[in-house]
Design brief:
Helix content: under 10%
Largest sheet: 5 strands, antiparallel
CATH superfamily: Jelly Rolls
Structural class: mainly beta
Distance between the termini: 23 Å
Length: 170
């Protein structure tokens, strides 16, 4: 999703959130929480995170500083795109946002040092509902642009996807 900036000699003005446009993209819930992340190192990976129902959430992510490769993985049990991933480059310059629907895992890799992201969530964070996929799981084969580095202990220890992984039902 790209919201076109209004520009003049002074600079530009860009909406970060437009309820009307997001409803057209399928978002019908109010924003419940807004977060930011700041990552110092280039090549760092955060993710792949999701929340189990009934805490499943839509996320809207925008890069405010730096640049990242943002990834969503479909983990909806009966989806025709189950376990397929999609990636987009988000940067402070390209004014793109990505909408991550309920039933998707989310993560990103920084492509520049000092990258800051803004997240809008439709559900409050619930630690008891937290889940994740391994960033380098062979089943997903995510094509990260840079060699992965600077990965948290939690993100390095999510289980591999196996025949018992059924995804989540939305």
């Amino acid at each position: 999703m790209k919201l076109a900036p209004i520009e003049d000699d002074r600079g530009s003005f860009t909406r970060l959130y437009c309820q009307k446009e997001l409803k057209l993209a399928g978002l019908h819930k109010p924003i419940a929480q807004i977060n930011t992340s700041f990552t110092r190192s280039k090549g760092a990976i955060r993710g792949m995170h999701f929340q189990h129902p009934p805490h499943a959430e839509y996320k809207i992510i925008r890069c405010l500083q730096g640049k990242c490769f943002d990834v969503a993985v479909d983990i909806r049990r009966y989806s025709p795109t189950f376990l397929h991933w999609h990636g987009e480059i988000l940067s402070a310059e390209n004014d793109k946002s990505i909408v991550i629907p309920e039933g998707f895992a989310h993560g990103f890799q920084t492509l520049e040092e000092n990258t800051r992201l803004l997240y809008l969530h439709t559900t409050m964070y619930a630690p008891e509902a937290e889940g994740g996929l391994l960033y380098n799981d062979q089943t997903l084969s995510i094509n990260w642009p840079l060699p992965p580095q600077d990965i948290s202990d939690r993100d390095r220890h999510f289980p591999q996807i196996d025949a018992h992984f059924l995804g989540i039902q939305i």
